[in-house]
Amino acid sequence: MAGRALKLASLTAAASGIYMYGNKFLDPNDFGIVRVGRAIATTAVITYDYLTSLRSVPYGTEEYEFLKSQIKELFMSFEDTPLGAASLAQVHKAVLQDGRTVAVKIQHPKVQAQSSKDILLMEVLLLVVKQIFPDFEFMWLVEEAKKNLPLELDFLNEGRNAEKVAYMLKNFDFLKVPRIYWELSTRRVLLMEFMEGGQVNDRAYMERNGINVNEISRNLGKLYSEMIFVNGFVHCDPHPGNVLVKKCPTSGKAHIILLDHGLYQVLSESFRMDYCRLWQALIKADMKRVQKYSRRLGAGDLYPLFACMLTARSWESVNKGIDQSPVSAREDMEIRSNAATYLPQITQLLNNVPRQMLLLLKTNDLLRGIESALHTRASASSFLNMSRCCIRAVSTYQRNKSHSLYRRAQISLTEALSLWQINLYELFLWLKGSQLGNWVIALLRRMHHSTY
User: Fold this and answer.
1) Which of 123, 132, 343, 443 is the most buried (most CB within 10 A)?
2) Which residues are catalytic?
3) Does the predicted model carry a pTM greater than 0.90?
4) What is the largest CA-CA distance in the chain?
5) CA distance 131 to 129
6) How confident is the model at residue 2 (pLDDT cuts 50, 70, 90)?
7) Could you count the other beta carbons within 10 Å of the beta carbon of residue 395?
């Protein structure tokens, strides 16, 4: 059987010209470090990648039937129609011989070889545009692509990211991350636990299934605040296809399912602390500190534009306090019209800020799009959760830097008081919006009038 697996590997590589990571054929070391059984299984999985393209093996030939038989040895069933497809890969639902239902993520053929050509073409085109339009500063796109694309193309890296974030956020019982089946995964094929649900921006799905939209929005904000401000390890592709929701039939709790862990941003401690303090200043409408920390993050004199880009609010709203009122249609229109006007300044700003900021800006935009679809944008709860995470992150940083027991105790006390104030304010907002709160307010008013 092991001999057949090795023969299959060489057949597949020779027939299709598909290269493994780093433009190498299947590395013999992969067989030296794992059990022969795993070699057989993973080779069979890789074979399906080849079968989906069917570029060099004619349908119905002996070679085709041989390759297909290897797939049947691994899977009890395999859905040919992908659940989803993107530029790098597609995902199929399958059932293993032991009955486990799995999602099989398969990298498109030749994407490894083509990716370097695409980056080179992008670089040439941007250089040409730069010569014609000197204010066009988008070379950072090439830098980011060179850094991130190899990571996204390594599915083993994606699996490690999934396990890391699941462990990091294990205290959030509403979060579900698919389990990775390492014994059946390679750099180009990833097998994971199959999970399904509605897309996070599908308000109608949530209403049909009795899922609280505000709870989902609040919990999604908690997840990302924790990743950004506390851990500095951020899932940077939260588009609706990668974030699903589902109501657990046994507990009745609504779960958030986080998929596609190929693209993460790791934040340095100094960047994370400046970013925490900037958001604290934005929430408190402390313009001096907004200017200070925006400049520290590379915005320079463009700090008002930077604040508007981060919050997706007008400068007037930033000065008043972004938690004071929700976004209006007029403000949305103003922001969209100004985006074109300030395009040269925006490109300059994107070129100046730390590279870590670029994926965060993308992540912020995707999260705001979800909030807009759910009609929960700029709710007070999102800012309260951000404030909690910022307070905890800054306090932890200060304690770690302090060598005085008294100072650490002082920091912990200040942290506890600040978090208590936020909890008290959240309780006030809840009472204000609830029937109980309305009843208490009406009772107090009657008592006040009876006194006079």
Assistant:
1) 123
2) 237
3) no
4) 98
5) 5
6) very low
7) 19
